[in-house]
Structure formats: structure tokens, C-alpha cells
Description:
CATH topology of the domain at 60-192: A middle domain of Talin 1
Largest sheet: none
Number of strands: 0
Strand content: under 5%
Shape: rod-shaped
Number of helices: 4
CATH class of the domain at 60-192: Mainly Alpha
Structural class: mainly alpha
Radius of gyration: 38 Å
Amino acid sequence: MDQGLAAFIAGVAGTVGALGGAFIGGVAAVRGARIGAEKAAEAARQQVQDQASIDHDHWLRQQRLEAYTMLLGAYDAYVPVANRVSRKVRELSLGEEVPTEDLEEMSTTAAAIQKERQRVKLVGPDAIHDKAVELEESVWTHQHALMQLAEALHNAYPLAGDLAEEEREARRDNARTHDSFVRAVGALLEDRGT
């Protein structure tokens, strides 16, 4: 072989190798850039999702705090009314008229507890709602016991004393269920670091 031909073949082989290497390098660079862009887009999407989740958790925590506070506020409005009505009923003489306006006021404040308990149901969680249900039920039980006692005294029912004890126990149960609700809310907030 002639040296010129060998040099030509070596030059062509070098050029083909250089072009092939450049082509493969270009393809690899494009593929790498595409993979890098996909990874960056995925990281941005994940960051947006994480921030949305954090924002939702914060919003839900605020809604829960407000619902729990409103329920406790409704209960706090009920207690002095219930205590006042309870005192008035216990002071009734046999055959004396039932203080209907006071009992109606107590029903109104109890209904506010029911309304706020329904709001707690919306924001949850179920364990807190269960405690709110217990609180509401104890309020209604107390109101019912107080109304029965007032009716028994009005009608001079001989076992009104037993009903008076039921009413006192129902009032104590109100305090226990209130305390249970407050402790459950406190534990939830402590677990969440709020």
C-alpha cells in the first residue's frame, strides 16, 4: 500500500470516529439534558405538592381550633344558665309553677352546643367528634333531668328527691364530659405540635 492511501484511510477512519464520537456525545448530551429537565420538573412538582399539603394542614388545624373553641364557648354559655335554672328548680315548692322562660333559655343554649358539635364533625377527627357527641349528649341528659325534676315538683310527685339526685349527677357528668373533651383536644394539639 502506498503511504498516501494509508494516510487517506487513516484520515477517513479518524474523521468517521470523530464524527461518530461527536454524534454519540451529542445524543448523550441531549438525553442527559432531557433527563435533567425531567428531574428538575419532578422536583418542582413535588415541592409544589408538599407546600400545598403543608398549607392544607395549616388551614385544617386552624379550622379545627376554631370549631373546638366555638363548641367550648357554647358550653361556657350553657353552664351559668343551667346552674341558674337548676338552682331555681331545686328551690321550687311542691306545686309551684315551672320556670318555663328559664328552661327555654337553657334549651336555646343547649341547641347552640349541638350546632357547634356539628361543626366539629366537619373538621374532625372522629375521636374528637366522639368526645363532642358525649358532651352534647350529657348536656341534653342534664336538661331532660332538670325538666323532669321541675315537672315532678310542680305536680308534687313524691319521688322528686330521687329526680333531684339524678339532676345533680347529670350536672356532674357535664363537667366530666367537658373535661374529657378538653383533654382529647389538648392531646390532639400536642401530638400535632400545634
